[in-house]
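sanity check this fold:
=====
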Amino acid sequence: MKFDSSDILAILRRFGQATDADMPRAVSGITKHQPHNKSVLIQFTFHRRAYCVVIDNTAEDDADDIYQQVASSGTNQNYRLIPNPLDELITYGLPYKGKDCYLLVATAMSQRLDQALVQRYGAQSRSAYQKLIAQGLVRVNGQQATSAKQQVRPSDNLVVDEPQPSTPQLPYTVLYEDDDVMVIDKPAGMLTHAKNTVTREFSAADIIRPHTTYQCDTPRPGIIHRLDRATSGVLVMAKNPAAAQMLQQQFSQRTVIKTYLAVVDGVPSPAAAIVDLPIERNPKAPSTFRVGAGGKPAYTTYRTRYTTADGRHSLVELRPRTGRTHQLRVHMQYCKTPIMGDIVYGGSPAERMMLHAASIELTLPNGQRRQYNAPLPAAFQPYTQPTTPHQGVA
């Protein structure tokens, strides 16, 4: 895909960095790099300020991945990601012509610590970060920071050590644990991990944090796959880098078997099928996704177990063969049987989103092939009665 100054200007406008009055001639010095075979990095100047765009449909909003690609391009300029202005959450990617685009702006070689924290993590004001620094809760490259005026560079590792959350934790169950992994039954409502290091909300990552050496200085220690906040069920976490690599390889090679149970609105037709439909980011609501020809391949096998007597809801078994963001939710919406409680994708109101990661089968780092099961939550029980059973497996 060729990107010229008009394309770059359109991207700048989407990120709120340019106005309709700006013209393509304001963009200059365009150079292109290819950090790897799945992405393109374009550097340019706009109104005398340096920017770059990373075009990558595989990064899936992973800031660390984006920064690593920029560093590998050989540039001697420091950049920071510009957040997606259309999303209330802290996300970075925006779709443009079927591609996920990430915009970065050049930063000074050094800046005050409190300013750097606001730029990197947002979420709080400079004064709030100054209080955290004064409390000894901020570290720079592993050393406790003592002054908000301390000068830091974009390459410095900044960590905010938040106090334990004051609100009670949601109850969880450890399904299995050894020297390499911890498997839990994550409750609905619990985050898999925080979006950034500045948060007081307890997450599954806080459970594994004291027991892992993998990505300890990030918001996602031990995390190798994710469940949405509203999804309950089996979550596998790694205790060391070697275990994480071995498990992540299984996810990427699709040898992990994941089974979900969902209560959907209506009755799926046919009762069992394979949904082979690509998924892309929704340009009208960038924090959501949709079925689209320009998206990434996504495969879901489903089987209807039971339908209620009134035909309003069905209990469906789902097996994703790929791991796209919101995959099951998007596919069920497309099939006109959205998941109950999934208001974002058209589901009817419920006390929770009725999606549960019931089981996962994988090979442990010790070589054993194991399956772990999470009991069905109480909210699902009314839909497990065989009022109208269905037969057949896709």
